[in-house]
Amino acid sequence: MAPLPMGVRFIISFSRDQWYRAFIFMLTFLLYASFHLSRKPISIVKGELHKQCAAADEPEPRFGGPSSSTRRSPTHWLLNNETETETDCGWAPFDKNNYQQLLGALDYAFLCAYAIGMYLSGIIGERLPIRYYLTFGMLASGAFTALFGLGYFYNIHSLGFYVVTQIINGLVQTTGWPSVVTCLSNWFGKGRRGLIMGIWNSHTSVGNILGSLIAGYWVSTCWGLSFIVPGAIVGAMGIVCFLFLIEHPKDIKCSSTLPTHPRASENGINRFRVQKQTTHSEKNGPLDPELQCLLLSDGKSPLHPSHIVVLPGDRTSSMAAISFTGALRIPGVIEFSLCLLFAKLVSYTFLFWLPLYITNVDHLDAKKAGELSTLFDVGGIFGGILAGVISDRLEKRASTCGLMLLLAAPTLYVFSSVSKMGLEATIAMLLLSGALVSGPYALITTAVSADLGTHKSLKGNSHALSTVTAIIDGTGSVGAALGPLLAGLISPSGWSNVFYMLMFADACALLFLIRLIHKELSCPGSATVIQAPLKEH
Hints:
By secondary structure, the protein is mainly alpha-helical. The chain is 64% helix and 4% strand.
């Protein structure tokens, strides 16, 4: 008998469950990367919507449709009486002196709608099938992203049109995050959750990078396509979601936990009901730090070391979805939510304003500034993975976030100083700042949200994860809305003032974690969590 080919041996070395788990990992990664891909074009196109009134001796090359002369509003071109040449100041109404406030209003419209919608999205999402809910959101998001770009082809210069488009797009995009986090957490238990979700959360940076490159390709020639193409990609991924997304491993009779980590069986349907006392020998073992330190049963003292809660495991029973106030009472939700508010303020200020900052400071055109800004997201990929690895190894989520926030503030100050010294200094600081700014943001929105959404106080209620995720990310999105708005208001007084605002936000984020960090560093070990086997019915 001939030996099996190497490729076949590789395929059969993995179990059916492992292949399905890898498939869901990649699918949810691509689905949410497409969401971020569609958010990035607005930051790239800002440099084209408002220019520095450079003289234009000949029209820009355009793609089809009306001629360039018919596209322009009267304010788009200024006539120079001495040279009798036209001066290109951008796209009305963003060609005026208050362009930074108008562009900030676009960011604020999207992010404010996203923040408000996120609180409702988790509550709605856990009452609907994830696949249908996410598909609707992706199709609608693709449509409204493309609609923004159609303003170019139809020569629309109404600020209201662009603001309303951003508001609706922000609302429909809230379907994404609670859905993908819930789905991924259904398939992966708590073992190595920080590393797994740190790698998975790089979809944010990957989507930003792809969005920058796609939008940058057309920004100088036909900025409408910078929105239409990402919109089409999001819509296409919505169809893929409808055809292939598997919400829960039980739908195809797969295991919901990683086989090498039996403790991870807390997430999913298979839980246990009986409350059980540990033996004397079990009391002497180390207690799960997450159980003992961070996620406390009453907010004041750890769970009693002689008891464990064994959670419900009836496959046929279902629990009611958790209420909004019930999710807020989970220990750690409020602290991490407020921390994320300021962490996301910093991250989204970079997301929406970094290309324009590079254009102003390094005097690059919109395309080159967009390409250079992707280095911030490259650093974010490494920062998210590093935060996950460290928090898994130390089993201290809050302390990991706190350390990175502590280092981020002085790094931002150095960035604001050395970025004016040349391109090489800008590249180095983009990578470092991206890692330190994105690390805490990535950890809180993924591993921490999943930890809190499967907290032991929920007694196995798998419907809580979507609501908890939405509360944390919704609160963070309030900061995401405020950051770009404040940047638009502050930047006319100087970019250095914007960086001072970002450093203050990092300090506030760290402040809200002080209590949790203190508990993580000071609480002693205790008993080991033991789980009883599920009885067949």
